[in-house]
Amino acid sequence: MAFPAQPSIDEYLRKRLMPVEGAIPHLEGIEMYGNSVPAGSVGGDLFEYINFQQRYDIDGRIAAAMLRARQYLDSLPPGQPVRNSVDAHVRWLQTKPNYSSTLAAEYRRARSSEQLRIAEDLQELFTTAGVLMVDAQGHGIISAKIASTVHDSFHALMLAELDHHGKTTPALFDNLNLRLAQSVTARNALGRSEVDQAREIATMIYGEVRPGGNFRFVNFGHPPPLVFSREFDRFVDIDENRMVQFPALGLEIPEDHPDRHKYYSMSERTRRINSSDVAEITLMSPGDIILLYTDGVYDGSDEEDRRRLEEVVRGHKWQSAKDICNAVVDYAVKQDDQLRRDGEEDRIDDKTAFVIKRS
């Protein structure tokens, strides 16, 4: 009996890291589209649509939160086994000398109220779409594996976020950052030195968009978004104070993290991420565009490269988000021809672009 041929590791990673068009979220007044071209058979770039309505049973999660809100208020009958985490905590409270039935009732009301808030936050996901973009250092199978690690960790943490908060919170990104940090224990076990360069490095940008054109995002070492204004017919400058950026994932451990001494950190920030570190851009008018990209498209530094990229967007501004995105990627791929003519093939990198357009 002949067995079907197994895909190679690069084929597997390429398919795994490339979303399908069927996953594109549909929000009123918003178009979005992404495209990625690896430098080789597989690359370290990744983008993904976070289609909350398609990926998660939001109605089911809301119903479960409402049910918990009611159950948490019910006192546990004497002699009955615990039914949930609130029962378990109240039973623990009963072992303390300062226990009172009033204390237990207040705790139950607080936890019930928490579930009502989670249900309200889950409701917001019906009109929210997310985008995840990752650029792992280098390109090839190892880079693809690093991008896959970020992808898998992100989705595991997202499940916990929706379970406990009903939305994405800054804690997700601190935990994801720690996931890519280099463990002291692992390095010691492998006999590595502090000058060893073998570490998983990736930049990442994650954002969520709403129908009004509001885009809120966090940025770890990634080139900042570009905003094309229909009114001014060009890229517009964004106030740097609104574009908070952290180093690439895993390079900086906050001083207030309890595990900070268990990981190597190139530098230390004083605290973990909070809501003030979430940047925000609003597409004010129909036709305004946000462009996300990896450094294979534009590294964010050269003004002439920015001008040429602006011309590409301007030339396709009346088209769909898909057409604009594909035009940007095609432009970036064509730039590789000059690198080949100059004998600089080693500078060719993966290319990924993502367009959000207010329609």
Structure description:
By secondary structure, this protein is an alpha+beta fold. Helices cover about 40% and strands about 20% of the residues. The protein has 10 helices and 12 strands. It has helices spanning about 10-15, 50-55, 60-70, 85-95, 100-125, 140-165, 170-180, 185-190, 305-315, 320-340; strands spanning about 30-35, 45-50, 130-135, 180-185, 200-210, 215-220, 225-230, 235, 265, 280, 290-295, 350-359. A 5-stranded antiparallel sheet has the order 1-12-11-7-8. A 5-stranded antiparallel sheet has the order 2-3-5-6-10. The protein has a two-stranded antiparallel sheet with strand order 4-9. It is globular.
Q: Rounded to an integer, what's the Rg over CA atoms?
A: 24 Å
Number of helices: 10
Assess the beta-strand content as a share of residues. 15-25%
Largest sheet: 5 strands, antiparallel
Helix content: 25-40%
Lateral arrangement of strands in the main beta sheet: 1-12-11-7-8
The overall pLDDT, averaged over residues, is: 91
Cα end-to-end separation: 54 Å
Number of strands: 12
* Basic shape: globular
Low-confidence stretches: none
